[in-house]
Design brief:
By secondary structure, this protein is α+β, with helices and mostly antiparallel strands. The chain has helices at 27-37, 55-65, 73-78, 94-106, 129-134; strands at 8-12, 16-22, 43-49, 113-115, 121-123. The chain has one domain (3-134): Glutaredoxin. Residues 12-120 form the Thioredoxin-like fold domain.
């Protein structure tokens, strides 16, 4: 599945891809995004934004999905300003709905939900993201 077709923002330029499901209002998710900043040379983080924490999260996640210009989307997500992103006049919810279905089918019950390049999963924020990503089971 191409995660870029979902409600996704990216950070980094590394060869190894890390997929992270986050909620815009999740404090631990924001801490994990902060952890990821120091790893952007080695990894590309794909943050898939889902509304795990209720109606306000759903509004903010849709705001990201329907943003007129995604250039500042990552900054808006990290700075808790998704609500101020200008929206497109019309926004087809198809891929937003696909994002929700994907999270449901994977069985995501909480965030952050991290998928390492080798397929390992962390339900929650790893204590040391770099060590967890580099470890092999």
């Amino acid at each position: 599945m191409d995660v870029d077709t979902l409600n996704t923002v990216s950070m980094g330029r590394g060869d190894k891809e890390v997929v992270v499901f986050v909620d815009p209002r999740c404090a631990v998710c924001h801490q994990l995004m902060g952890d990821a900043k120091s790893l952007v040379d080695d990894y590309t983080f794909k943050f898939i934004v889902i509304p795990a924490l209720g109606a306000e999260s759903n509004r903010l996640a849709k705001n990201l999905y329907c943003a007129k210009d995604k250039t500042h989307a990552l900054d808006a997500l990290m700075n808790n300003t998704l609500g101020s992103l200008p929206s497109k006049e019309t926004c087809d919810p198809g891929q937003y709905d696909q994002t929700l279905l994907t999270a449901h089918f994977i069985g995501i019950e909480g965030v952050p939900f991290v998928v390492a390049p080798d397929g390992r999963v962390s339900k929650g924020r790893p204590k040391n993201l770099k060590s967890w990503l580099e470890s092999v089971e």
